[in-house]
Amino acid sequence: MGVRGARSKALHDKAMVNCQYSMATFSTGERKRRPHGDRKSSEMTLHLKQTFEAAILTQLYPRSQIDIYVQILQADGGNYCACVNAATLAVIDAGIPMRDYVCACSTGFVEDTPLVDLSYIEESAGGPQVALALLPKSQQIALLEMNSRLHEDHLEKVVDAAAKACGDVYAVLDRVVREHVQEVTTLVGE
């Protein structure tokens, strides 16, 4: 896209969040010719964009663009969730203010039991799956995606399990960010 095209998409009152999701051709057992641009990649790109538009304080950067590029090198399951968690750390490290961390976790439902953080084999089993991206402090849902039908009696259990797992992810991310900040401030102080 030329400069003119980028300018026409610029928003006068807030930053535009631009995302791109792609998978390396060697990331799965099945070989793909095109690492991005297929329907699944386009869908994941849109999900990432929606998720981070809900979290980043875009109004602080009018007429700007924030780019988030993620590439899956090994698809072991929970690709969207891993991307959200990694991109959250990258956005924080870049110093871009957010309302809250964005934490994501995948959940499946097998034999009346919700399973969190699904592996590739568990995802391939074909049961109902939910991906949840959550702003943990406010419990605001940034994205909730289901891949198949799930009876409404089970939905609450599955979403609760995913929300608890997102809380656990938040605790890990927050600890790592605080350790990193401590380490950087110690190095700057020397």
List keywords for this structure.
190 residues, two-stranded parallel sheet, four-stranded antiparallel sheet, 43% helix, 6 strands, disordered N terminus, Ribosomal Protein S5, domain 2, alpha+beta, globular
What does this entry look like structurally?
The protein is an alpha+beta fold. It has one domain (3-189): GHMP Kinase, N-terminal domain (Ribosomal Protein S5, domain 2). It contains five helices and six strands; from the N terminus they run αβαβαββαββα. The strands form two sheets. It has a four-stranded antiparallel beta sheet, sandwiched between helices. The chain has a two-stranded parallel sheet with strand order 1-2. The radius of gyration is 18 Å and the shape is globular. The model is unreliable at 1-5 (pLDDT under 50). Belongs to the RNase PH family.
Question: How would you briefly describe this protein structure?
Answer:
The chain is of the alpha+beta class and 190 residues long. The protein has helices at 3-9, 39-55, 79-93, 120-124, 152-189, and strands at residues 16-23, 65-72, 103-110, 113-116, 129-135, 140-146. It has a single domain (3-189), classed as GHMP Kinase, N-terminal domain (Ribosomal Protein S5, domain 2, 2-Layer Sandwich), CATH 3.30.230.70.
CATH topology, what is it called?
Ribosomal Protein S5, domain 2
Provide a count of the helices: 5
Task: Average the pLDDT over all residues and give the rounded result.
Answer: 85
What structural category characterises the helix and strand content? alpha+beta
- CATH architecture descriptor: 2-Layer Sandwich
Count of folded domains: 1
CATH top level label: Alpha Beta
Spell the H/E element sequence: HEHEHEEHEEH
- What percent of residues adopt helix (DSSP H or I)? 40-55%
Task: Please outline the major beta sheet.
Answer: 4 strands, antiparallel
